[in-house]
Design goal:
The chain is an alpha/beta fold. The chain contains 11 helices and 9 strands. The protein has one domain: TIM Barrel (Alpha-Beta Barrel). Helix 3 links the parallel strand 1 and strand 2. Helix 6 crosses helix 7 and helix 8 packs parallel to helix 9. The longest helix is centred in the N-terminal third of the chain and has 24 residues. It is globular, with a radius of gyration of 20 Å.
Length: 297
């Protein structure tokens, strides 16, 4: 039994060393990181063990209700320096932080965000943190003084009954104005699954950085992101081939591979060349990365 345990231990150490070899063979070199020193996608030393930067999805799903201020504060207080989150427009034209079109899953109320006033939305509570649904301005105020910071602003509206062209413009203009007012010290990108929304964002605000979100990267989508002038692209880790990651990177597009829910997936995102990686469990993954870093020293 003792000999079996020794053999298992030796196997475990060998496997761990193999992982280290793979990761460090795929790290950026000093030559190709020198141009990124002032790029807020990464820290000044882009060879840090926390590269790619972890983005907390909707703040975090580890504790508190998603997209509530308490979730973001918890992640920030535990070392998270980036987020990916969602925005919609209320009936009275206020931008709020909400993923779903209906508030019932995450709040004590129900109804479509776009058919409710801000006061009506503020009258309900988030289910697991007993707080109000935040406005974009309330969320952004958390980041006013942060410089080493990155956020992807996912635009949930789509053209249709709830969003006429005029109403879509109202949403895009308001989100842009709020971002430029509060997030200028960090790095932010306006992201969406919908090409038409991204196109209109650029028409209204040519200086805006836009990013395409997609479930698995294919040739057509890669070409579309390049043609659209995207600054970022966010495909899933699973279903995204290395050659297409290399293709969009060669075109100057930064890559966010999601979701890196545990250390091994973060290592894969790193090896593939992602500069950020979104996860529902940012604090857990960050702690695992730091423990992993200690084992290397």
């Amino acid at each position: 039994m003792l000999q079996k345990k020794k053999r298992l231990c030796q196997l475990s150490k060998s496997s761990f060393l193999l992982i280290l070899l793979i990761v460090f063979n795929n790290q950026p070199t000093m030559e190709n990181t020198s141009s990124m020193k002032n790029d807020l996608f990464v820290k000044e030393n882009s060879l840090t063990h926390e590269y790619p930067r972890i983005l907390g999805h909707r703040g975090t799903l580890e504790r508190y209700t998603e997209n509530g201020l308490m979730a973001f504060k918890y992640a920030l207080s535990n070392g998270i320096t980036g987020f990916e989150t969602d925005f919609r427009l209320t009936l009275d034209n206020e931008v709020v932080v909400m993923h779903d079109s209906d508030i019932r899953r995450t709040t004590t109320g129900e109804g479509a965000v776009e058919k409710m006033t801000l006061a009506e939305i503020k009258s309900v509570r988030l289910k697991y943190s007993d707080e109000q649904v935040p406005t974009a301005e309330e969320l952004f105020s958390l980041f006013d003084n942060l410089q080493d910071f990155y956020i992807e602003l996912e635009m949930k509206p789509r053209y249709g009954e709830l969003y006429t062209p005029e109403r879509m413009d109202t949403f895009l203009n308001k989100l842009y104005d709020l971002a430029t007012t509060h997030l200028s010290k960090g790095y932010y990108v306006f992201t969406c699954f919908d090409h038409q929304v991204l196109k209109r964002t650029k028409e209204l605000h040519p200086d805006a950085k836009i990013g395409l979100i997609y479930s698995g990267l294919d040739e057509k989508t890669a070409d579309a992101a390049i043609a659209r002038g995207c600054s970022t692209i966010a495909p899933t880790i699973h279903g995204t081939p290395q050659e297409l990651v290399d293709k969009v990177k060669a075109a100057g597009i930064k890559v966010n591979l999601w979701h890196s829910e545990y250390l091994e997936l973060w290592l894969k995102a790193r090896a593939m060349g992602a500069v950020v990686s979104t996860t529902n469990h940012p604090v857990t993954v960050l702690n695992a990365i730091r423990e992993y870093a200690k084992l290397q020293n």
